[in-house]
Every structure is written in structure tokens, then in C-alpha cells.
Amino acid sequence: MSDLLDTFYKTFIYEERYLYFLQGLKYTLIIAFFSILLGVFLGIVISIIRDYHRQTKRLWLLNKIADIYVYIIRGTPTLLQLMILYYVVFRTSSLSPVIVGILTFGINSGAYVAEIFRAGYDGIDKGQREACKSLGLNYFKTMRYVIFPQAVANIFPALGNEMITLVKETSIAGYVGIVELIKAADIISSRTYDYFFPLIVSALVYLCLTFILSKIMKFGERKLNHGLSS
Amino acid sequence: MVYQVKNLTKKFGENLVLDHINLEVKENEKIVIIGPSGGGKSTFLRCLNLLEKPTSGKVIYHNQELNEKTYKTIQGKIGMVFQNFQLFNNMTVIENITLAPILNKIMSKKEAYQKARTYLKQIHLEEKERTYPSDLSGGQRQRVAIIRTLMMEPEVILFDEPTSALDPEMIGEVLSLIMEVGKQNITMIVVTHELSFAYDFATRVLFMDQGKIVEDGDKEEIFKHPKTERLKQFLNNTK
Question: If I label B229, which of A11, A83, B4, B141 is the partner at 20 to 30 A Cα–Cα?
Fold first, then answer.
């Protein structure tokens, strides 16, 4: 028992090591939050470009670029994307690793979010678009007022899953020297030669984060589904 | 002349659905299209609204050939009522009705709401204005859909089997609203299987089969004195 207390002390209290965890948590949260924002933004833009092209046959080039983007992102590991962005694309720039992390995870998530939205638009009866057309509504009004709101309500659970995946995936940011949660745990373990507390605490923190996130998404889902039961 | 249809042909793959159709529609005509399922009635109706593009031939609306460009200038003047209503499930009844006139700047929000309430009163749904479509019966939904079309002050309304998705006891309320709308100076074309409604409503009846207009005449000619064997057979079978 005193051994356990001793390790606990060495892991968290001694030399104020709990600060590593707090800092790790801070970066995990920052990266997760901004890359979710970036991912959802990119995903919506990409999905609308592709849908617009499908409906109107316009924007051929942009659509092609969007296709290639989704294809590349889905076909390569996230870790590789992170390393390429960090060691190749932004090697000579003075961009902070955290920004590179946000860009990587945001761009990565954007491709998956785009696919989720596409499934959402496809799930809406095409008669809804026809009704809009015969009421004289153009593509963007149809999208903005009819298709998008219904699609979002339908895909909310899938979107929640993607966000949870993203939060967990930020744990690879340590590879490019960002001290996020797992990197912090790693640093402490290397000093104390104990893995139990750092890893278990990291796991608990991730569980808390994803639990809160899924509660938020559940709440949003209930709000959005109002009136959409048929 | 509202419509001139010239040699309209529509193929889905190898399947010939409309076969060189020619037709002229005058202002304020009340046309009912009858015929067996798969005869091309709905596809023909959808060509009049550019929901289907002709494989060949033309649909001319007020001296202008319908295509994506000209269709934009028409903006809601060709209304459509669908078999499955197609109300917007994410909006209340009154939002459904007022969306298009407000977004198209045909009227202000205030005018649109006023007009919508007048219409809702006429169909005795004034208390449902904040209800979502999922809480309405099929008959109520279709009547709201008809009102939604009327709000755009259309010159033409196309009805694509407006009662086919309804429970039998709700068909009457929808048909009587269509009769009521028919008193206005609006050109109406209705695809339906309700033959007694067709008889009461139509100034002109088209019988379509196998992608062609087989007979075209007033209701006495079509229902009392059918000329072709196919129409006679069809009328006998539906009795």
C-alpha cells in the first residue's frame, strides 16, 4: 500500500508533475476542439461542392479536387499525414506544432465528415428537392432551408462518432513533439519507471472527454429531431 | 396558349416511356389524365415541369421552350402537387406555406403570413399552423401542400396522383379542395385514378397508354362514347 502511495506521489506530486498532465490535457483539448471545427467546416464545404456538382453538373474541377482530397485522406494513415505535414510541408515554416496538429486532424476529419454529410443528403427523399424546384427555390435556398437541416438531424449520431474518433486520434500528436496527454504520461513514466498511474489516468481523462462529448451530441440530437419523427 | 408539346419522347434507358406526344393546352383548361399504370401519365406530367428532361422533342410554355435556363425565369409559376405531399418535415405548417413566397421575394413576411392564415382558415386548419407535418393526417398534409402551391400564385398546377397515398376516408377532402381551386383561373392538369372526380372536374380528359395519348376529348366523349377498344376496356376494368 505504501508502495502504491509512493508511486502516486512520484507520479503526480513530486516536482509538481501533475502540471504535465494539465498541460497535456490543455493541448489535447485545444487540438481536438479546433480540428473538430475545421473538420466540420471543411466537411460541409466539400460535401456541398460535390452535391452541387451532382445536381447541376457544374463546378467540374472543384468537384474533382474534392474527390481526390477525400480519396487521399481516406486511403492513408493519419499518422503519416501528420508526419508529412510536419516534416515535409511545413518543415521550413515557423508554424507551431500545435497548429500543424490542428491542420492535420482538421483536414483529416474533413474528408470523413464530407462523406457523412453526403450520406445525409442522399437520405433525403428526392421529392423534397423536386418540391423546392417547383416552388421556384434555387439550389442554395433548397440546401439551406430544406435539405441541410433535415440531413444534419439524421447524421448527428454519425457526426458524434466521428468527433469521438478525432478526440482519440489526437493522441498521435506526440509523434511530432506536441506534449498532449499521452506524451505527458510518457514523459512522467520515463522519470518514475512506473506506467500504471500515468496510463490509467490518461485513459480516464479520455473516457471523460468522450463521455462529455457524446452527452453533448445526444442533447443536440434531441433538440434537432423535434418535429422530424416521420 | 399555355403549353405546346411537340414530339415529346422520353426514354429511361431502352425503355420508351413517352412516344412522340403532341398536345396543346389552353389557358384555364382543367385536364385530367387517366390510363393504366405504367402508361406514362406521371412521366408526362413531370416533363411539363422539367422534373424530367425530354429525350427528344420540346415542351413550350408560353412561347418559350422549357429548359434549365428558361425554367428559372418562371419561378414557381408551374406549381406541382405530389403523391407523397413532400411537405418539409423540418418546418411547421405555416413555415412550409410561406417559405417560397418569402424567399422569392414575392411578398413580405407579414403579407405571406396573412395570406397563409386566410388559406388555412378556408381549409379549416387555422389551428394547425404551428404543427409539424408529421403530426397531420395524410389528407391534412395534402391540403397544406396544395395551399403551399397556391401561395406562389401559379398559372398552372400539376397534380401527380394527389390522392393515391391517402386512406380512403381522406380522399374526399382533398378532391373537394381541388374542385374548389378549380374555380379559379388556373390551368390545372391532374393525373388520377379517381374517375368520378375526373368526370365532375375535367373540361378535357386525356387517356394515355403505352406512352401515347390514345384519346383526347371532353368528358362526355371519353366516358360515354369511347372510340378505341383500349379505352373501352380500361373503363370496363375500372368499374
Answer: B4
Residue B91 falls within a domain, yes or no? Answer: no
Q: Which domain holds residue B206?
A: 3-86+156-238
Q: Which residues of A touch B49 (CB under 8 A)?
A: 133-134
Shortest Cα distance, chain A CAs vs residue B100, angstroms: 6
pLDDT in tens, chain A (230 residues): 678 888 777 777 777 777 888 888 999 999 999 999 999 999 999 999 999 999 999 999 999 999 999 999 999 999 999 999 999 999 888 889 999 999 999 999 999 999 999 999 999 999 999 999 999 999 999 999 999 999 999 999 999 999 999 999 999 998 888 888 888 888 888 888 888 888 888 999 999 999 999 999 998 888 877 655 44
β-bridge mates for residue A100, sequence order: none
**Which residue of chain B comes nearest to A129, CA vs CA?**
B86
> Model ipTM?
0.94
CA gap A8, A5 in Å, rounded: 5
- Predicted TM-score (pTM) of this structure: 0.90
Structural domain includes residue B38: yes
Total domains in chain B come to 1
Site of grid cell 413532400: B86
Question: Which of B76, B99, B132 has its CB closest to that of A145?
Answer: B99
Q: Which of residues 3-62 of A touch B (CB under 8 A)?
A: none
Per DSSP, the three-state class of A218 is: helix
Domain extent at residue A56: 2-224
Nearest chain A Cα to B73, which residue?
Answer: A136
Please indicate, yes or no, if residue A229 is contained in any of the structural domains. no
Strand runs labelled E in B26-117: 30-34, 56-61, 64-65, 78-81
Q: What's the N-to-C CA distance of chain A in angstroms?
A: 59
Q: Report residue A57 as a C-alpha cell.
A: 453538373
A120 contacts in B (CB within 8 Å)?
none
Contact between B38 and B13 under an 8 Å Cβ cutoff? The reply is: no
CATH at residue B39: 3.40.50.300
Q: How many domains does chain A have?
A: 1
Does residue A223 belong to the interface with chain B, where contact is any CB pair within 8 Å? Answer: no
State the CATH number of the domain containing residue A118: 1.10.3720.10
